[in-house]
Design brief:
Largest sheet: 5 strands, parallel
Structural class: alpha/beta
Number of domains: 2
Distance between the termini: 90 Å
Strand content: 5-15%
Radius of gyration: 25 Å
Number of strands: 5
CATH class of the largest domain: Alpha Beta
CATH architecture of the largest domain: 3-Layer(aba) Sandwich
Shape: elongated
Amino acid sequence: MSGLGTELPAKNPFLVALGERVRALRARRGMTRKAVAQAATVSERHLANLEYGDGNASILVLVQVAGALQCSLAELTGDITTSSPEWLLIRELLLHCDEAELRRVRISLADTLSAGTSAAGNARLALVGLRGAGKSTLGAMLAEDLGFPFVELSRDIEKLAGCSVAEVQALYGANAYRRYERRALEEAIQIYPEAVIATPGGLVSDPASFNLLLAHCSTVWLQADPEDHMKRVTAQGDLRPMAASREAMADLKGILAGRAAFYSKAQLRLNTSAQPLEATFVQLRGMARQLLQLPP
């Protein structure tokens, strides 16, 4: 009898790669399959299926196997920061650092890798913060005062894509939008040795783009009360990404809370809800001249 129609389905590539990592980690630890199975309290057959990509193990089993192999779940599942000895050694050095120490390491590493192209010594100022914080209004005022070009990255993204930001996200998805965003930032940095840049609120959510911004621009986080964010965005006729939600204010507060730790990486911060526009601008002007080492 021929074997027509009896071919086994192809194995899932992720499960195959997972199994290969389990075998490699077991070999690195010098443990037999039986020893790992006993330490993980799973059957040896179950572990064998996992190693050969035949077993779709539950997350709890993977946690048990990771414990038996004395590694993190991230290492087991293929996190890039566990992919080589150098990554692992760097992770170990950073493991017990607090936020302040991690910040110092990040800045030092960025300076080392950027080979002298860091934010220090350039005349680009980037404003970060959620929509409605005042980046466009204050950014345009500041650029005029300094005699710098004003770059609004959202507009540059639309020029590159040939459609609106909303259409980019609706038609092509978030990943495509982030690619346009990165390209717009790269071009702004390449073209303008001095500029005031208003960044999209979500740019900080992409670590690669945010690292690029921090390396090449001085930064100010423009903050505002949630009510002011909502009022200003509504006045602009734009409620993305809260438009479809009945709990718009709760969503907005959640976005603010989720991004605050990233926005706080800016060198300075300014609350645009604390005083009228003109007084806020005077304060921002002073901050900008301090960061860019310009005369008052």
